Amino acid sequence: MAGLPQTVAGARLKDHDATVATWGDPRIVLRCGVNKPAGLQPTSRCDVINDVGWFSEQIDNGWRFTTIGRMGNVEVTVPTSYVPQADALVDLSAAVKKMPQVRSCQ
Fold first, then answer.
1. What CA–CA distance (Å, rounded) separates 91 from 25?
2. Taking a C-beta distance cutoff of 8 angstroms, is the pair 77, 63 a contact?
3. Which helix (H) or strand (E) holds 15?
4. Do the beta carbons of residue 103 and residue 81 sit within 8 Å?
5. At a CB cut-off of 8 Å and minimum separation 6, what does 60 contact?
6. Three-state DSSP state, 89
7. pLDDT in tens, 11-62
8. 89 with 54: CB under 8 angstroms?
9. Residue 72 in contact with residue 33, Cβ under 8 Å?
């Protein structure tokens, strides 16, 4: 993914390749091309942050956010030590918005 920020939620970029990038320690992880989340249903909540729709799931030690309505899914996992976790999505939204939107949040 092109145009990734050097800092996400105050954490510095550690590593990246074509499909995965990480920031900080504990790691904020961005993955491109993931499958649709099993828990995503037509009635699921969709939060829009800087024009990007996200489906959120609480997981052990943090949150997993997956884009909704973009060509190709992007997943971001944010450990609980980053508060608020949505700050990471604000920082990543410019890069994610470069992916074509195929539909709006439901």
1. 17
2. yes
3. strand 11-16
4. no
5. none
6. helix
7. 999 999 999 999 999 999 999 999 999 999 988 999 999 999 999 999 999 9
8. yes
9. yes
Any idea where the domains of the chain sit in the sequence? 7-96
**Whole-number Å distance between alpha carbons of 34 and 68:** 12
**In contact, 42 and 51? CB cutoff 8 Å:** no
pTM confidence score = 0.93
pLDDT digits (tens, 9 = 90+) for 48-98: 999 999 999 999 999 999 999 999 999 999 999 999 999 999 999 999 999
Quote the pLDDT of residue 106. Answer: 63
Torsion over CA of 85, 52, 28 and 13, rounded to 10 degrees? -120
Which single residue is written with the structure tokens 């996400």?
A: 8
State the pLDDT at residue 77. Answer: 98
